[in-house]
From TrEMBL:
The gene is dinB. Gene3D superfamilies: 3.30.70.270, 3.40.1170.60, 5' to 3' exonuclease, C-terminal subdomain (1.10.150.20), DNA polymerase, Y-family, little finger domain (3.30.1490.100). Residues 223-244 are annotated as: Disordered. The keyword Magnesium applies. It comes from Herbiconiux flava. The record marks Y10 as: Substrate discrimination. The active site is at E96. This is DNA polymerase IV. Poorly processive, error-prone DNA polymerase involved in untargeted mutagenesis. Copies undamaged DNA at stalled replication forks, which arise in vivo from mismatched or misaligned primer ends. These misaligned primers can be extended by PolIV. Exhibits no 3'-5' exonuclease (proofreading) activity. May be involved in translesional synthesis, in conjunction with the beta clamp from PolIII.
Length: 391
């Protein structure tokens, strides 16, 4: 199993496309850091850090505006190399994927040899550095790629899996975030080996049934998951860093409209629909919040924008009190567009024409052929014939 992960992806694309930036600290973003080159990371700059703090840590950094189209094109070029290497590719994000290469020994050599050629092709054909972890399981391969960054290759042989994993900090486990790590540290558990020494029931009691079982299994090297080549994204999203200056309602609505318009186009381009709209906010104190609403499956920009605006309107009092540094939208519970029933070609804002069309449909196909959505799944008694009024 290979886990291939492009290094400092956004910043690396900028350095690739502008030779004068190579070797210099590069920060993508303005008010908030979206990505940082390793030269900037060495000075303490991190993703999601405020732009002012990043400038204080790295005064000589070069700030560049994000170019999402360039990053998307670079990702497609790299994934084409992945799929030319093996048909068993599971993309995790725009810049990382799992590749199953165990069946390529006779055709392409050992997994390590495949990984060496893969890294060279990405460097030559896409102009980017990539780190690759090679291991028996997906989890270990992902940990290996993280350990060998930047621009590295690490092979974890089955015979030395415990030797490799047990001394690592618990933060290396897939699923351990800041909150879980803090909880484990309070219990005196700082390494993977210490977590592995616990009984599974103890881990479940300390961390919750699902999380405890999952993390305990990983700590004991149990990860039977195969590469899933049929996996489709369950959500899509986009966000806009706003910096720290106050934003008017008109500005926020403009940013929201731009985001929703872009995401709705992506839905339609992929023949997808969504059921849930999620508004993501980061306030002036950098605390995060989400608001969501579920609707009937749709890919219509107007519907999605209306829901997003309602979510934003509900959050405006909190924004006014705390300020806002980031706004984003995610569309989740994605499905296929062909699962939608066909729509009538009606201008739904033309009420007179709508009434005429509905009357014509009922005259031809019966009074029950069309009804208001509000009547769906309601008490059948509501559909009883109406009595004539007394004259």
């Amino acid at each position: 199993m290979l886990h291939a992960d492009l290094d400092a992806f956004y910043a690396s694309v900028e350095q690739r496309d502008a030779p004068e930036l190579r070797g210099r600290p590069v920060i993508v973003g303005g008010g908030v850091v979206l990505a940082a080159s390793y030269e900037a990371k060495a000075r303490g700059v991190r993703t999601a850090m405020g732009g002012r703090q990043a400038r204080e840590l790295c005064p000589d950094a070069v700030f560049v505006h994000p170019r999402m189209e360039a990053y998307s094109a670079a990702s497609k070029a790299v994934f084409a190399i992945f799929r030319d290497t093996t048909p068993l590719v599971e993309g995790l994000s725009i810049d990382e994927a799992f590749l199953e290469v165990g069946g390529l020994r006779r055709l392409a050599g050992s997994p390590e040899q495949v990984a060496v050629r893969l890294r060279e092709r990405v460097r030559v054909e896409a102009g980017l550095a990539i780190s690759v972890g090679v291991a028996r399981t997906k989890f270990l391969a992902k940990v290996a790629s993280a350990v060998c960054k930047p621009d590295g290759l690490l092979v974890v042989e089955p015979a030395r899996e415990r030797e490799f994993l047990m001394p690592l900090p618990v933060e290396r486990l897939w699923g351990v975030g800041a909150v879980t790590a803090e909880k484990l540290h309070r219990l005196g558990i700082t390494t993977v080996g210490q977590l592995a020494e616990l009984e599974e029931a103890t881990a479940e009691r300390l961390l919750g049934r699902a999380a405890g079982a999952h993390l305990h299994a990983l700590a004991r090297l149990r990860d039977p998951r195969p590469v899933d080549t049929t996996r489709r994204r369950s959500s899509i999203g986009s966000q806009r860093a706003l910096g720290t200056k106050p934003r008017s309602d008109e500005e926020l609505d403009l940013f929201l409209t731009q985001i929703v318009d872009r995401l709705a186009r992506r839905l339609r381009d992929g023949d997808r629909v969504c059921r849930t709209v999620v508004l993501r906010l980061r306030f002036g104190d950098y605390a995060k919040a989400t608001r969501s609403r579920t609707v009937r499956p749709t890919d219509r920009t107007s519907v999605l924008l209306e829901v997003a605006r309602e979510l934003l309107a509900a959050a405006r009092p909190e924004i006014g009190a705390r300020g806002i540094t980031l706004i984003g939208i995610s569309l989740s519970q994605l499905g296929r567009a062909d699962s939608l029933p066909p729509e009538l070609p009606i201008d739904w804002n033309d009420q007179a024409r709508l009434d005429t069309v509905l009357d014509a449909v009922r005259d031809r196909f019966g009074a029950a052929s069309v009804s208001r959505a509000v009547q769906l799944d309601r008490d059948p008694g509501l559909d009883a014939p109406l009595l004539p009024e007394h004259e």
